[in-house]
Amino acid sequence: MTTTPSSSPPPIHRSSFLIHRFALLCLFCAAAAPSTRPADLRLAFASLADADASVRDKARDQLMSLSRDDLPALCAVVRDALPLQPAQLAALKDIVPHIYLTSEKYAQAPEGFLGVRMSINTDPASPTEIIIDARFPGFAGYRYLQDGDIILDIDEMPLARPLRQETFSQAIRQFKPRKTLHLKILRHGQPLRIPVTLDPRPALQLMDELGAMDELVHKREQAVERYWKENLAPLIQPAAEPE
User: Does some domain include residue 73?
Assistant: First the structure.
């Protein structure tokens, strides 16, 4: 009787096996690696004292993208860089509160949020303008905008004229959190198009939204102050004392 040999699975080539193992190893290493390399942190922090303003701005933006988990590594970089240049210290006081507060928990609403205070220029001799008066650390506006920026428009949702603060605020709320939109602004007279990734809007009581926002900002400022006193002040103050 003739028998038909049973079919067997194709052989696994050693090269394919090694490639698969290498891919898994790469994924593991990527997951285990810190979010920012120490060498990158040192370079960015050193660049905060660069004579070129564009280099300083790029370094600030890079450091602003860090998470709270990166702060111990940043503190180590600060310790190694002592004594700090005045520009580095000023930038650090701007950057650390934002990094720390990006991970601070708060009740959220499903609407976009910049985290800024605005005013309207009502001078009849000039066009109506929306002016950024203040920014709250930990929110999108603090990273991407500057005090004194003038809002002109939103690419993704052109604003009706004449410009009104309420119109701009309502437009921002119509976008979902984590949405990246593009703001047209004037900064020191220079027109710019700024990409901004929105945060979730704090869920506040509408009857006292302004007061509730002030209270939220105050609590967040207190949290940052505690972190600074416990972690940065002991490093910086002794180095700043005259001999």
Answer: yes
